[in-house]
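Incident log, structure service

09:12 report received: a user says their structure output differs between two submissions of the same chain.
09:20 pulled the input from the user's history:
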Amino acid sequence: MSVRRGAVVALVAALALGGCTAGTSTGNGYTEDGQSSGYISSDGSTQTWAPDERGEPVEVSGTDFTGAPVDVADWRGDVVVLNTWYAACPPCRAEAPDLVALATEYADDGVHLLGINGTDDAGAAQAFERTFDVPYPSLADTDNGAVAALQGYVSINAVPTTVVLDREGRVAARVLGLADGSTLRAMVDDLLAEPVAAA
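09:34 re-ran on a clean worker, output below:
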């Protein structure tokens, strides 16, 4: 392989791993004016918090792409998986089958999934949902309200980012970048195994 061709291959690989952005990024997938700057792929790094390290319950609500209201407070007592995404984001498309499988397999175990999409219009978002047979709603987060609510508790430094809430609605785990299905299952299983707090 020539040196020039090797450099081109290396550049393409770096762009694929590092994501693509547009505008002046703030480092969290959004430009300084609050608009989505394209996906920023991370390495799939994870972070978890022990029960005594978790903050207050997060308040995330809005409407989905059909106009129906969604509020994670309605799911208190269950484990909730939040996932930021948009349709043209390659790692979002790559992880979609694992998220769909998780939603389907854990539907009867007290686990809810909710997407958060601040980029797409309803047509693009719903086309993505049809393509991957997504069984859970996604917030149409055009005002970035859901992301802002989460930023108060956990940093959202990549698109996609997946945040797992415990039964009390507190941030218990996070995956930056493409989420591995087995990693997500382990996080959810750990939270399902935790003792239920007394009312």
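09:41 both user submissions now match this output. Likely a transient worker issue. Closing.
09:42 reviewer note: Residues 3-18 form the longest helix (16 residues). Strands lie at 45-48, 61-63, 69-71, 79-84, 111-117, 138-140, 161-165, 171-176.
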